[in-house]
Design brief:
By secondary structure, this protein is an alpha+beta fold. The protein has one domain (31-190). Helices cover 26% and strands 42% of the residues. It has helices spanning 6-10, 26-30, 32-70, and strands at residues 73-76, 79-83, 88-100, 107-119, 122-137, 143-148, 151-158, 167-171, 174-177, 180-183, 188-190. Strands 1, 2, 3, 4, 5, 6, 7, 8, 9, 10 and 11 form an 11-stranded antiparallel sheet that branches. A hairpin with a 2-residue loop joins strand 9 and strand 10.
């Protein structure tokens, strides 16, 4: 260090520059845009498919009600709603009533709740669930028969086709005919 000035000895060497933090490149974010767009398109497509299938199921049920009306059997609901989005189609009828004028003698049926369900890919295959109690009466008269159960299902009802099948099951039912209590077996199928 001979020949160097003391000031030069006090100088610190060149400082390393701090590393710059790079802003994320836009190219990385652009990779996700096609995936997001595909998910949005799939969601919109599924929504459209559900609403289309729900309209088919509603028309199928309406056509069945019209055919029954031509045969003298009239059905009515206190309130009716459709739901079940996104995986099924459910049509619910509260305070359901049916008038069978074609039978001799005619009679009325009333139920607390009737629910029809269908799959999105098979909207003409309706499954029905009836919530008790169900009452049987002469038209405009007090009920003469009341039946209740823990569950009752009507399955494989192909409404909208000329040929269909109906299989009904009920579980733990109990009825009263003019004050006489009747009890039923568990899991007894009706065909």
């Amino acid at each position: 260090m001979p020949g160097e000035s003391p000031l030069s000895m006090m100088r610190v060497g060149p400082r390393p520059l701090p590393k710059r933090v790079r802003a994320p490149r836009r190219g990385r974010l652009r990779r996700f845009f096609p995936a997001i767009a595909i998910l949005i398109v799939l969601g919109l497509g599924w929504s459209w498919l559900w609403y289309f299938a729900a309209s088919i199921a509603e028309r199928t049920l309406g056509a069945w009600i019209e055919r029954e009306a031509e045969l003298g059997r009239t059905y009515a609901c206190g309130t009716q709603s459709i739901g079940g989005f996104p995986f099924s189609i459910i049509s619910r009828c509260t305070q359901a009533a049916a008038v069978f004028n074609s039978n001799k003698p005619p009679f009325d049926l009333r139920a607390t709740d009737v629910t029809f369900s269908a799959q999105v890919f098979r909207p003409t295959l309706l499954n029905g669930k009836i919530s008790g109690p169900v009452t049987l009466a002469d038209p405009g008269q007090a009920p003469i028969f009341v039946i209740d159960w823990t569950s009752a299902l009507a399955t494989e009802m192909r409404a909208g086709t000329d040929r269909g099948s109906l299989r009904a099951t009920r579980d733990r039912w109990m009825g009263a005919l003019m004050g006489v209590v009747l009890r039923g077996a568990r899991d007894a199928p009706l065909h």
